[in-house]
Amino acid sequence: MPIGTGTGYNAALLSHRLGDRRVTSVDIDPGLVAQARAALARVGYTPRLAAADGLAGYPPSAPYDRIIATCSVRRVPAAWLAHTRPGGVVMANLSDGVVPLRIDGDGIGYGKFLGQVCAFIEARPADSPAGPTTQQIIDTAMGGTGRARSAGPEADGWADPRFEFL
Ligand SMILES: C[S@@+](CC[C@H](N)C(=O)[O-])C[C@H]1O[C@@H](n2cnc3c(N)ncnc32)[C@H](O)[C@@H]1O
To answer: 119 burial class (0-12, 13-18, 19+ CB within 10 angstroms)?
Structure first.
């Protein structure tokens, strides 16, 4: 289960690899979920998508073999451990580190941080006062909407080896 459906790209990759019946993804932004659902349908995938707070897990499809968070958290929500079957893995992005946690029979996750730096946008709690939407966060980071700009490692200053894609 990817948490943070966004464009649906992760869900598409997983649907292709695993079959869409085995994929569930949630995003807190209903507009993004609708767009992702339409985009996925256009390329022939219909995974289970829901507008929901991924910080609370997603009980309807639990237990999961894998929970992959593509938004960052400050602490691993207990629900992610509870919704993962023994032997399954929770892949969490804490600050700018990624830790795969293997869940044991008592629902405890064990793992070590990977060596690479990785930072997704921070998960928004559903019950927080209205903060910026995901689109507003992206627009701010990109310097506004409707403005053409060049993109690429050099233009974005991402030649930094910490941002290498593996
Ligand atoms: C980096 S984007 C994910 C990109 C996505 N995996 C893709 O394939 O396009 C992070 C996403 O996390 C979502 N998000 C933020 N807080 C969330 C929460 N509490 N629960 C679920 N999704 C959340 C955002 O709306 C945003 O779409």
So the answer is: middle
pLDDT tens digit sequence for 112-139: 999 888 889 999 988 765 667 776 776 6
Report the CATH number of the 2-125 domain: 3.40.50.150
CB count in 10 Å sphere of residue 141:
8
Predicted structure pTM score: 0.84
**Residue 126 DSSP one-character state:** T
Measured in Å, residue 83 CA sits from the centre of ligand 1 at 19
- Centroid of ligand 1 to alpha carbon of 85 (angstroms): 23
Q: Which residues does residue 104 pair with via DSSP β-bridges, in sequence order?
A: none
How far is the centre of ligand 1, averaged over its atoms, from the C-alpha of 7 (Å)?
A: 9
Cα–Cα distance measured from residue 62 to residue 1, given in angstroms and rounded to the nearest whole number: 9
Question: 134, 136, 138, 142: which to mutate for ligand 1, most atoms within 8 A of CB?
Answer: 134
Between the CA of 109 and the centroid of ligand 1 the distance, in Å, is 22
Where along the chain do its domains lie? 2-125
Protein residue with its CA nearest to atom 27 in ligand 1: 6
- 9-18 vs 30-42: helix axis angle to the nearest 10? 40
For residue 80, give every residue at least 6 positions away whose Cβ sits within 8 Å of its Cβ, in sequence order, or none. 57, 67, 69, 90, 92
